[in-house]
Automatic annotation (TrEMBL):
It comes from Nesospiza acunhae. This is IPIL1 protein. The gene is Itpripl1_5. GO terms for cellular component: membrane.
Length: 340
């Protein structure tokens, strides 16, 4: 239901910004446990999607690393640069060029560059973008075919947009985040801080940023959520029982609640075991054995006080999932560094 709804919204988004200098929303990508096929016992019931933003005509996005910091908890700034469009043609006529047309002509045609609307200085502002994105979602809703079937409530947040849908006894809550893709890879910088910055996962958390993030309106955290979601789909196509690994993960996150092991820890352990235990062995009759493999793997990590990040620097990470070249060669961050 959510995938069909967001597909309809995306088409309306593109039409709405077609002749503007606002970012161009791309197809929404479902992330987190709900879309990966498992959910921990304490799942908050919110379906989270990431909408990638492309630069509008006459603009380019450049990602700049804010600080060295922890490799698995990096933030970036999105610098916006004006580029010449004088040589381009649209339906036989040349588009306005923000570099070469006069300010008088631009004002006459009510054309403002992205730098004048959603930026702080030369950098894309998360909170300004969130306000614009909320208005875009709300104004687009009445133009999607599903609008008459659902009662909708929109909730603006400082770094995301929440959409509550209800129909009879059925209700859904969607949190729409937005971000910028790193090159052609499956790694993004995103509006909403993620649990990756706290405990080594890329599942999105509450829409309310932490105190440390309240003043950094131009800070965009790096997320690996899309790459991890693609990994789960990649693995499911090769397993004899495509859901066995998900049942293992769900079981551990339920029965060991309150033991000090978070859902992200179990998720990381299960992903590592999926790349070490041959995939043909993941059949239903081996369920207990695979549970033991996961437990033994985590026990080994505790003995060594080292649990490596699954995406960063992982030599076994599938080559079919696109990562920035530098990301494959780094030293994998230790998610158990605090224990060490």
């Amino acid at each position: 239901v959510i995938a069909e709804l967001l597909d309809s919204l995306t088409h309306v988004f593109v039409d709405s910004v077609r002749h503007t200098f606002y970012p161009v929303p791309q197809e929404a990508i479902g992330v987190g446990s709900a879309f990966e096929g498992w959910s921990p016992r304490d799942w908050d019931g919110v379906y989270r999607v990431l909408v990638s933003l492309n630069p509008p005509p006459g603009h380019a996005f450049h990602l700049e690393l804010n600080s060295a910091g922890q490799v698995a908890a990096r933030t970036f700034s999105v610098r916006v640069e004006l580029v010449c469009t004088s040589k381009e043609e649209q339906l036989g006529e040349k588009p306005l060029c923000l570099l070469h047309h006069s300010q008088k002509e631009l004002r006459r045609k009510q054309k403002c560059s992205l730098l004048e609307t959603l930026c702080s200085g030369s950098y894309l502002d998360v909170e300004k973008t969130s306000h614009w994105f909320f208005q875009l979602v709300r104004s687009s809703w009445l133009h999607v075919p599903q609008w008459h079937s659902w009662h909708s409530m929109f909730q603006p947040c400082r770094r995301s947009c929440r959409l509550q849908l209800s129909k009879g006894r059925k209700s859904l809550e969607v949190e729409m985040l937005f971000g910028v893709r790193q090159g052609d890879s499956d790694i993004f910088v995103v509006s909403q801080p993620t649990e990756a910055q706290n405990c080594g996962s890329s599942i999105f958390v509450s829409s309310q940023p932490t105190k440390a993030n309240r003043t950094a309106s131009t800070a965009w955290p790096e997320t690996y959520a899309v790459a991890e979601a693609k990994f789960f789909r990649h693995i499911a196509r090769q397993l004899p029982c495509e859901s066995l690994h998900l049942k293992c993960l769900q079981l551990f996150t339920c029965i060991l609640r309150g033991t000090g092991f978070s859902s992200p820890t179990w998720k990381t352990a299960v992903m590592h075991v999926l790349t070490t235990v041959p995939l043909p062995r993941w059949h239903r009759s081996a369920f207990a054995r695979r549970l033991w493999d996961i437990m033994a793997y985590l026990d080994r990590c505790l003995q060594l006080t080292r649990l490596e990040h699954f995406v960063l620097g992982n030599e076994r990470f599938p080559a079919e999932i696109s990562l920035p070249p530098a990301m494959r060669g780094v030293e994998p961050p230790n998610l158990f560094e605090a224990l060490a």
